[in-house]
Amino acid sequence: MIKPMGTKILVRILEEERVTSGGIIMPDDAHQDAIGYGIVEAVGPGYWRDGRYLSIEEVDGLKVGMKVSFIKFLKDTHTNEGIRNRIGDDLILIDTKDILTMEET
């Protein structure tokens, strides 16, 4: 099993809806939203503060099994190139700061 480090979390990406609520089928290249959705599979040990780790759940309330939305496309601020943080076809490794919303499933 992959174990994230620090404040990283491993998210299983949920399939994006390709049909609008009005029934229009969106082509693959037309659906390039900047927000992704997924289920948290694993979390890192958390934040190092005052000589000890504070868990991600303790600080952010985020835990395995929660549904999250996250910033999908990240760029390196030095090179302005996309950062590859996908693992296989359905997993992504992201930092807690890139989480936009979370909900219990």
TrEMBL record:
Keywords: Chaperone. CDD domains: cpn10. Coiled coil: none annotated. Gene3D superfamilies: GroES chaperonin. Transmembrane segments: none annotated. The keyword Chaperone applies. The keyword Chaperone applies. GO terms for molecular function: ATP binding; protein folding chaperone. It comes from the Bacteria. Pfam families: Cpn10. Heptamer of 7 subunits arranged in a ring. Together with the chaperonin GroEL, plays an essential role in assisting protein folding. The GroEL-GroES system forms a nano-cage that allows encapsulation of the non-native substrate proteins and provides a physical environment optimized to promote and accelerate protein folding. GroES binds to the apical surface of the GroEL ring, thereby capping the opening of the GroEL channel. Belongs to the GroES chaperonin family. This is 10 kDa chaperonin. It comes from Dictyoglomus turgidum.
